[in-house]
User: Fold this.
Amino acid sequence: MEKLTKQEEEVMLHIWDLQECFVKDIVARYPQPAPPYTTVASVVSNLKRKGYVKQKRVGNTYQYAPLIAEAEYKRTFMSGFVRNYFENSYKQMVSFFAKEQKISAHDLQEILDMIEKEKE
Assistant:
């Protein structure tokens, strides 16, 4: 799976949320001033080339849908992030964010609660 650029990830988030959409639907989701239609269409074309979306002809335009689930993308690239920046240790990653005060004790407790609930 090829890593996406920031712009491609942003468009992909809209596609994952919409599931089936046209370029105009994606453009409509952006705050004003929205990027030009042609820019978004180019990004969607790149996503198709990279195998992230499929297209279906509808009239004189195309409808797009994700080929890769959002969770699968996150799992793949978070694993690489943790491997590259935290010596493949999720514990080190969480510790880093706690030390940087990016995650609170309350947030950590919620995470622990979720882990315990999954074990049941």
